[in-house]
Design brief:
Largest sheet: 5 strands, parallel
Structural class: alpha/beta
Helix content: 40-55%
Strand order of the largest sheet: 2-1-3-4-5
Oligomer: single chain
Shape: globular
Amino acid sequence: MAKYLKRAAAVVLTLIVLDLAFGLAMKYVANHAKGGDTYNLNYINRHFDASLAIFGSSRANHHYVSQVFEDSLGLSAYNCGVDGNGILLAYCFLNNIISEGKAPQVVIYDFFPEYDLYDNGDHQKALTRIKPFYDIDGMKGIIDDLSENEYIKLHLSTYRYNSEFIQMLSDAVAPKQMVIKGYKPMQGTMDTDFVKADNGTKPVIDPVKVKYLNKFIELCSRHSITLVFVTSPVFNGSNGDNLKLLRLYGGNDLSLIEMSDHPRFLHNKDLFVDTQHMNSAGAELFSSMLVDSLRSRLRP
């Protein structure tokens, strides 16, 4: 029996060592990635160093041209938006940036209810993105809120990187994505109106997202970060509903810039690739126009 126990212990020890080695290898790959999501996410969470940060979903990621803000405002800028994610991931990122000692002076948040308020069963999307950064101060409480017992599993490197390591290896050798200071330009124009059918269901508010929307606001306030919420252009407009929701669940004292219904963009197929996302021409124009509204809010 003792012989079998020793063998079993040896196997377990070997697996632990291999897991640790795999984790160290993946961290090395992340720190030496040439580009793509691997470099982008690792920079945001481990090495961020910019005065202005942009947060939000894919609309943030594709609508805000970092270089335009740098050139016009004289502030180093980085786009931290991520497709398919909203306030949950944004809070994680801001927590990690501050925990690593590099709080930005200004935060622009592109508010979009689908990812910032509504319950879409999408907590796992945020977890997938933050698994490699579970060890940063403050992350445990966030992870526990998103998924019970998840933090325990994250001690295994093979679990943290199980869905990412192929992408990471690719980004270390030959990144395929164009990422310019976090901003990802989209190409093409709309060839149809992409009318989305209304299924008649009313969105349900996600209390976890409401919690982290308010925690995000509070975190900015605590660290003297100027926070500006923006609703970027939508092809068909939003009828002001976004701002009503933001005030209802985030408070009435927020700094808001409403551009979702701006006539320069409304129903302009040349500036959109679909009803929710602008192409690079639209993003350049929008970013330039937004700068004018920001200047007065950023004056001391």
